[in-house]
Design a protein that fits this description.
Layout lengths: L6 H9 L9 H13 L8 H5 L18 H11 L12 H5 L23 H10 L14 E8 L4 E6 L4 E7 L4 E6 L5 E6 L4 E6 L5 E6 L4 E6 L5 E6 L5 E6 L4 E7 L4 E6 L5 E6 L4 E6 L4 E7 L4 E5 L10 E6 L4 E6 L4 E7 L21 E3 L5 E6 L4 E6 L5 E6 L4 E6 L5 E6 L4 E6 L5 E6 L4 E9 L3
Antiparallel strand pairs: 1-2, 1-28, 2-3, 4-5, 5-6, 6-7, 8-9, 9-10, 10-11, 12-13, 13-14, 14-15, 16-17, 17-18, 18-19, 20-21, 21-22, 22-23, 24-25, 25-26, 26-27
Length: 459
């Protein structure tokens, strides 16, 4: 049975802002209220304190398991005053209960109920604040999105939470880590280890190296195939190989001979090909992933640097966008005809200092395409910036200052955030894809270069 509403509650409802108009009552009633009643080990239930504390919850008799519609409405109107619609990390209701090290505020008299923003119940509260409704609510994919920043002159890798842009973990004991990729099932992270000439398999739950797989030579970049059964490693030594690692046995099962030592290797979005690029030989080698044999090669007029892969509507590979040695821009190769169809030279932004020292023959080094396929991002070491181009027409959209030596780019699965390794700043810089503004600068390790995004599954 519901007690009459307290004077404090009346005053709060009367005086509070009309924030509830942007929040969904039914979602609150069915998804948020059960959190107030849940018993957590070592904690009193929310209702035990907020039965008589501000912000109050409508009273429940001991034999009641849920609030009536009247009590639910009172709770909704009250607790809506303690959130900022659309901004979970500015909402007292969410910050008070969240551990300080996870982004919460200093103190909550009822204790810290959530140790991470990834806690499913905290995520439910955030969904309500963000305006989610029961109709729009969909099951969230299992897993945690994480950004991984390798530190090329260090012995560690920083793990970043893209919700808070805070460092939430470290992968240690890999001296001179180079390339990094995340298994499709989210349970393993693969890192090329230059100092040991190995591919290091890292457990996604503990961030500990569980095995080091010997390679045929010093490695550079790395990619995993679409079914997660194989990892391809670019070998940066002559005569040139792509090593193929079986992920079940974690053994090196094949070395595919290519023309010259390699810089990078990628798997095309449709999973049909592994594409490797050689700098001295100026050659792109395309490997069929079903047989791990060379399908075709293409030699250009300059060394092959980073690549990206626009797709056709059916998901097949349309083009290879490739950055070249000593060229401030990129070329576009038609995948079907195997011909260069255009070259785009990055602009010289007015008022920008041009950096030409210690570029290692690579004035533009780093490419990424948003998941919707509409925007291509390229780094410019000359002008310490990243530049956005529309696809498929390759029109310049904007230039964003990053800092010295931007080296690599990764984009979150929702396409909202662009992560850029600023090697000369020892930072990972976050750019909003829509506004093309820097929104965060994250201190990381020594000379950060390769950066990757993946979804971890640690349950």
């Amino acid at each position: 049975m519901l007690k009459s509403i307290s004077l404090a509650l009346v005053l709060f409802i009367a005086a509070g802002p009309a924030s509830a108009q942007n929040l969904d009552f039914e979602f609150f009633k069915e998804r948020v209220q059960p959190i107030f009643l849940k018993k957590r080990t070592g904690h009193a239930r929310c209702i035990s304190c907020h039965d008589h504390r501000i912000p109050p919850l409508a009273h429940l008799e001991s034999n009641d398991s849920r609030w009536s519609d009247e009590g639910s409405r009172q709770n909704f109107e009250m607790w809506s005053q303690f959130v900022v619609p659309g901004q979970p990390l500015k909402s007292k209701m969410l910050l008070h209960t969240l551990a300080k090290y996870a982004g919460g505020d200093n103190y909550h008299a009822g204790g810290k109920h959530f140790q991470s923003q990834d806690d499913p119940e905290w995520q439910t509260l955030a969904a309500w604040v963000n305006g989610e409704t029961l109709a729009s609510s969909k099951p969230k994919p299992a897993g945690l999105v994480r950004v991984f920043q390798t530190n090329a002159a260090g012995d560690n890798i920083h793990v970043i939470d893209p919700i808070t842009n805070g460092v939430v973990g470290m992968i240690e004991d890999i001296e001179v880590p180079h390339g990094i990729t995340i298994a499709r099932d989210g349970k393993m992270i693969y890192v090329t280890n230059e100092s040991r000439v190995t591919l290091d398999a890292v457990d996604a739950k503990t961030f500990k190296v569980i095995k080091r797989v010997p390679l045929s030579g010093r490695p550079n970049n790395v990619a995993v195939n679409n079914d997660g059964s194989k990892v391809y490693v670019a070998i940066a030594e002559d005569p040139g190989y792509v090593d193929v690692i079986d992920t079940k046995s974690l053994t090196n099962v094949k070395s595919v001979a290519v023309n010259g030592r390699l810089h990078n290797v990628y798997v095309t979005p449709d999973g049909k090909y592994a594409v490797a690029g050689a700098i001295p030989a100026k050659t792109i080698s395309v490997i069929a992933t079903d047989t791990d044999t060379i399908a075709w090669t293409l030699t250009l007029d300059a060394g092959i640097r980073p690549m990206a892969f626009p797709t056709n509507p059916d998901g097949s590979t349309k083009e290879i966008v490739v950055q070249l040695s000593d060229f401030h821009g990129f070329a576009v190769v038609d995948f079907a005809t195997r011909k260069v169809v255009r070259r785009i030279e990055l602009p010289d932004p007015p008022g920008h200092h041009k950096e030409e020292q210690t570029l290692q023959g690579s004035p533009a080094h780093g490419l990424a395409i948003t998941p919707d396929g509409k925007t291509l991002w390229s780094t410019s070491k000359w002008y310490h910036s990243v530049m956005a181009y529309s696809l498929p027409d390759y029109k310049l959209l904007g230039v964003v200052d990053i800092g010295e030596h931007p080296d690599w780019i990764a984009i979150t699965p929702d396409g909202k955030s662009v992560y850029v390794a600023a090697a000369g700043e020892d930072e990972t810089v976050v750019v909003d894809n829509d506004t093309r503004k820097v929104v965060a600068r994250i201190p990381v390790g020594a000379v950060p270069k390769r950066v990757a995004v993946g979804v971890l599954r640690v349950d």
